[in-house]
């Protein structure tokens, strides 16, 4: 059984429906902003803290909407699985790359679904969850 990395992440969409993705320093894959939970922290609390650290965007737990919990091969840790609680946030943001973020990228859902430079969890689970039924 592969080691599991537990994280929380937030989906941000712009006025054109594109989704914000981030690439961490020293990695090749784009993924959702977010990160690992600290001891005693809920997924929503971790998402709010990580977004503030990585993007300089201040959110409130009560403004997050759960999208789901997804599990996939980790993009940057070979042999590991990432389990992410993913939230959406319905508002406009002006993010800045901070902390370990090397690059920000707004991408369409189609670009993400077809792109090899996007993390498996984002590509295979989050994009389908955002598609209309």
CATH class: Alpha Beta
- Give the mean pLDDT: 95
Helicity level: 10-25%
CATH topology descriptor: Nucleoside Triphosphate Pyrophosphohydrolase
What is the overall silhouette? globular
Please tell me how large the radius of gyration is: 13 Å
For the sheet with most strands, the description reads: 4 strands, mixed
What structural category characterises the helix and strand content?
A: alpha+beta
Order of helices and strands: EEEEHEEEHH
Q: CATH homologous superfamily, by name?
A: Nucleoside Triphosphate Pyrophosphohydrolase
Strand proportion, as a percent range, falls in 25-35%
Strand order of the largest sheet: 4-1-6-5
Number of domains: 1
3D architecture notes:
One of its GO terms (molecular function) is hydrolase activity. Keywords: Hydrolase. This is NUDIX domain-containing protein. Belongs to the Nudix hydrolase family. Its cofactor is Mg(2+). The protein contains three helices and seven strands, in the order ββββαβββαα. The relative contact order is 0.28. It has one domain (about 5-130): Nucleoside Triphosphate Pyrophosphohydrolase (Alpha-Beta Complex). By secondary structure, the chain is an alpha+beta fold. The strands form two sheets. A four-stranded mixed beta sheet has the order 4-1-6-5, with helices on both faces. About 25% of the residues lie in helices and about 35% in strands. The longest helix is centred in the middle third of the chain and has 13 residues, at about 45-55.
